[in-house]
Design goal:
homodimer; 189 residues; mainly alpha; DNA-binding
Chain lengths: 189, 189
DNA sequence: AGCCGATCACTACGGGCGTAGTAAATCAAC
DNA sequence: GTTGATTTACTACGCCCGTAGTGATCGGCT
């Protein structure tokens, strides 16, 4: 059972991902969390404090998600990696759409307010090293570089698909080719 | 000399790219355009109308920018393309940073509000076909696919660089490798 | 010159926002 | 079981927002 603050922050992420930055207010968070008015104010005095806490919560959830994924799927080839990534992208665009939108909304926010960058950068670095290790494990000769390229590609793809969605069946071939091309040194197959 | 409405919309894009969606209000636009209070209201009655007009203006400016670029640089090889792209990315992250941030803010907005998608999608499609033709001209055997992959990659790269900037000198090698790998059929050199 | 339509500058107002401050409730410790 | 401190629920206030409405100003047409 998440704590009260976590419930509020999860509600805030949902508001952010379904109604945008403009709608992210104390009152909207209270309502989304089905809590009495003023609850969000008690924990996060100012709006800036709320946004900072949302970033922290988001990072924590992201980390937990990767670790869960890491436990389930462990691709052993480029095609396996592509399949896993396709699954991730499909989930990000479908059931988790709000979370994905919130993610990019936070990126834009961080581009505007440098004090939000640190936690996001730490999280990104963690993901990078973790994914690098996985890439190395399946044969990549330059895992850091290939990992960075792949992450850039996937985020660009996601952003575009969010804004003007294409047919979902087109995702797999696109991602498969990108993986093979951007990570040419992993064991293909 | 841009018309009065264009001046207002350019100011709106600047507000969006430097202060975010939340700050995009009629009054803020008036101030940024150094026009008397109420000017933005006269042209764009509601906030939604303002945002829609900003999208339209943005698309028009983008189109003009490509056409200008097309007149100047005409790469003839993968390395030339990479150099041109690196120049574009540097400009997008430096002098044009606000415009770039505004761009992604609008993407997020379009992810939330489907009625904004059409103009952005049209613009993206135009860019795609134009860039595809250029890719084909320098030898690409599958220009549409390679173009899509490249655009996805560049937007992801830009978004990441905006949120947690890295050293600018790292851009060129990253982009060069990505171009070579994602567009393997263009004449290298 | 004189009118007329459109554009512009400015004001007015209701609503919702962020924020601060206060009562109530919960819990720990003794 | 009472006390005291922390957490929770709620209220109050001032500010700024989006929006509507009203004169003033300008240009084209006859």
């Amino acid at each position: 059972m998440p704590s009260r603050q976590e419930q509020l922050l999860d509600a805030a992420i949902d508001v952010l991902g379904t109604q945008g930055t403009r709608a992210l207010t104390h009152r909207a968070v209270d309502a989304a969390a089905s809590m009495p008015a003023g609850s969000a104010t008690n924990y996060f005095k100012t709006r800036d404090a709320l946004v900072s806490a949302v970033v922290a919560r988001f990072v924590a959830r992201d980390r937990a998600a990767w670790q869960a994924i890491a436990g389930f799927v462990q691709p052993t080839s480029a095609d396996g990696l592509a399949a896993a990534l396709t699954g991730y992208v499909r989930r990000a665009l479908g059931p988790e759409r709000a979370v994905t939108v919130a993610r990019y909304a936070l990126f834009v926010e961080a581009a505007l307010r440098p004090e939000l960058r640190a936690p996001l950068a730490v999280s990104a670095q963690e993901l990078r090293t973790w994914a690098s290790d996985r890439l190395r494990a399946i044969g990549s000769a330059d895992p850091d570089r290939e990992c960075a390229a792949l992450l850039d590609y996937v985020d660009g793809l996601l952003l575009h698909q969010l804004s003007f969605p294409g047919p979902p069946e087109a995702l797999e071939p696109m991602i498969t080719r990108a993986v093979h091309e951007l990570c040419p040194t992993v064991t293909s197959g």
